[in-house]
Amino acid sequence: MLVLTRPLAPLCATPRFARLRSPAYSTSSILLASPRRSNYFNSGFTSSYDPTQDTGRGPIFSKSKFGVPQFYPRDLKKRVDDYVVGQDRAKKTICSVIFNHYQGLRRRQHHELQDQHLREKIQRQKFAQDREIFERTGYSAPVHPVEGGRRHSDRSAYAPKSWRQQTNIRHVAEDEFPGHHESVRGTHNEVLEDPFEAPSDNFYIQEDLTVPNHVKIDKSNLLLIGPTGVGKTYILETLSKKLNVPFTISDCNSFTQAGYIGQDVESCIERLLIEANYDVKAAEHGIIVLDEFDKIARKETVNGRDVGGEGVQQALLKLVEGTKVTITVKDNRSSRTQNQPPTGYGSTTPPQAPPSGKVDQYTIDTTNILFVFCGAFVGLDKTVLRRVSKPSIGFGSEIRGGRSFSSTNSLKDILPLESYRHLPHQPIFEPNFTPLDLTTPADLQAFGFIPELIGRLHNICALSPLSLEELYRILTEPRNSLVAQYTALFETYPSKLFFTRSALYAIAERAAKNETGARGLKMEMERVLAEPMYDAPTPYVLITEACVKGEEKAGYWGKDGKMEVERRIREEDERMVNGGVEVRLSAEEAREAAGLGSA
Fold first, then answer.
1. Phi, psi of 555 (to 5 degrees)
2. Coil, strand, or helix at residue 314?
3. Is the C-alpha dihedral spanning 311, 313, 316, 321 positive or negative?
4. For the whole model, what pTM was predicted?
5. Spatial CB neighbours of 141, under 8 Å, sequence gap ≥ 6
6. What is the pLDDT of residues 131-168, one digit of tens each?
7. If DSSP states are collapsed to H, E and C, what string results for 46-61?
8. In 3D, which of 487, 588, 586, 470 has the Cα closest to residue 521?
9. Neighbouring-strand partners of residue 289
10. Omega before residue 537 within 30° of 0, cis
C-alpha cells in the first residue's frame, strides 16, 4: 500500500505576515485563500484554497439575480380598461391570478437554472480534486465529465499494468477488438453490479444536500361566474393579445366521456398545442379557457349514463391538477387528393392512392397550464339565496315584502351590503353586488359538480350585470366601440353616420330590457341601421331617438347637408337636457360619439 506523508514545517518557518507580504502571493490569492490550522499547535502554518468552501464575500455578492417583473396586475388592468367597460372587481382578480401564475413559473425557471449551474460547479470542483489526487499518486488523470470515460470506481482501469496482469482482469472490449475502446469512449459508463446485492437496496434515493430545497408555488385556477354578455370571455381574449403566451378557448358542450361519441377533454390540450405552433415548451406554459362550464353539471338521466356531465368532470380532475398527456397529431398534408382534370381531358389512367399521413406524438405536462372556467350558471343565485337569507316563518323571522326572484335586477337588493363586506376589491362608489358574489363550494356542489373538481378551483369570481350607464359607455368609450365600428363601416359606402345622445341612450335602454348584456347593443344597432344600410350610399345619415323608437325614419342628406345635420343634433341634445334626462357625457365626447369630431 502506498502511503503519502508530508513532512512538518520547522519551527523557524517564515512568519505568517511575512509570507503574505511576499511578492509570490498576489492580492487575488490572498482574498481567495482559506487558512486551515492543524490540530497540533506546534506545527507550522499552512494555507490553501478549497473550492468546496464558501469564501464569504458578503451579502452583495450573494444577492439574487431574479430581477423585478416586467409588468404588474395594475398594468394589465390598464390595458384591459381600453377595451372593456366596467367589471373592475373581476378585472383586478383576473389580472392578479394571471400575474401570480407567471411569476411562479418565472421563479421556478430561475431556481432550476441556478441549481444547474451549482451542479456543474460542484462537478468541476470534484474533477479538479480527483485530478490532483491522481497526479500525486502517479496514475493517469481521469477523463473530464464532459468528455466521458469509464468511472473512477473501477480501480482496474487505473491500476498498474503489472497488477492487472497478476489479477487477470481485463476490460470487456480490450484485446478482443483493438481500438474499440477508444471509439466508444464517452458513450457509456461502465457500472459494476454486485450479484450478491439485493435489488431492493437501490430503491431509496439519497437526498442531494448540495442543492438547496426551494419552496414550490402551486398554481391557482380560476372560475368566472356571471350572466351572458357581461364580458367573461372578452376580458380573457383581450388579455391574451397582451400576453406572449399560447391561449385557447374550448367549449365544454362538445366534451364527452372517453369512449363515447364526441370530443375527449384532451382535445383542449391539442388546440393549445396548435396555438403554440407545436412547441411543447410553450404549450406547457399556456392558458386554457373552458367556456360553458355550467353545461357539464350532473344531470339526472333515466336511461343510460351521464356521459356529458359527471363523466366529463371526472376526466378533468387529473388534467386540471397536472398530468402528462400524449397528443397524437396526424399530418394530412401529404394525404390530400390532388385536383383531377375534367372527364375527356388528359390521361384516363386512374389516380393512385395518396400516401398515408405522418403521425407525430407529443407529450405535454399540464402542471404549469392555467385553467380558467367560465359559465353563466343560470339558477345558482337562487341556490345562494336559499342558503344565505333568513327564513320568513317562525318567531323572530323577518317578513319579506313579496319580492320575486324572477329577474337579476330584483335579486340585487334582497341582501344587505353587510353580507358582502368580506369580499376583496370593495368599490368606493355605487357597489354593484349580486348573490353570485357569495357563491361557495357547497352551492356549486348543489348545482351538480363533484367536490373533487370544485376543490381544484381556488378562485371564484362573479361578474355583475351591466347597468344602464355602463351599456351607454360601451357604445362610445372603448377603442373598438360599436359606434366606431358602424361609422367605419359606413365610410366604406361612402357615407357618414351620426347619432344623437338621446338616440344612444334609447338604444342602451332597449338593450337593458333584453337582459342579454352587451350583445343586446349589437342587436339594437343592427335593427336601427337595417334601412340605412339598404339605402346606401347617401352622403349623410342621422339616427335620432324617434328613429330608435320606430316613430320616424332615419334622416338622409346630400353633400351640402352637414350644417343641417349639426343643427338637428344640437336641437335634440337641448331637448334632452330640458326634458330632465341625465347622461354623464361631456360635450367633446358627445361630438365624437356623433361623428362630428372636434370643433
1. -85, 135
2. helix
3. negative
4. 0.70
5. 131, 134, 135
6. 888 888 876 555 555 445 444 444 444 444 444 444 44
7. EEECCCCCCCCCCCCC
8. 470
9. 249, 372
10. yes
